Amino acid sequence: FVEIEEGVDGLIHISDLSWTKKIKHPSEFTGINEEIEVVVLDIDKENRRLSLGHKQLEENPWDVFETIFTSDSVHEGTIVELMDKGAVIALPYGVEGFATPRHLVKEDGTQVKLDEKLDFKVIEFNKSAKRIIVSHSRVYEDEKKAEESAKKKSEGRSTKKAMKTMVANSE
After folding, report:
1. Sheet containing 2-5: which strands, arranged edge to edge?
2. How would you classify residue 136: left for phi > 0, otherwise alpha for psi between -120 and 50, otherwise beta?
3. Which of 100, 130, 131, 147 is most buried by its number of CB atoms within 10 A?
4. pLDDT tens, 131-143?
5. What is the pLDDT averaged over residues 65-77?
6. pTM here?
């Protein structure tokens, strides 16, 4: 609860504190008796309640992130949290991404480690859920696929050239 002035209280929902940080408890963001700027989001006259927001004082950075973290774009990230279901990766601009265990395997077959800096490819960007799913293994897997595809194309060209030469010589 936030006291606007004596006798006037409002509530800031935890999700209205920050656009980018996943806040589990308000004490991670502010303290008791600290001043914080807010905007009034809703007035419920019947129940005498004010809904307040802090993050709304700034533009939604996810509008910009949408243009930066496009599918298949690659960004350097740092592993900041490892858990059974995957890892949280600190990406540029103070945003976090998530990768499942199968996307955390390095090219040599080893698993990533806490505080390790690696390249990550964006495999899903969800603005409404404020979620970015990334993969380290896709970075080198997709490079291998591109190299194999280029090799097949050049082999295909060589075969076509050889066939044309054979046909021309036989004529």
Report:
1. 2-5, 8-12, 49-53, 39-44
2. alpha
3. 130
4. 999 999 999 988 8
5. 96
6. 0.65
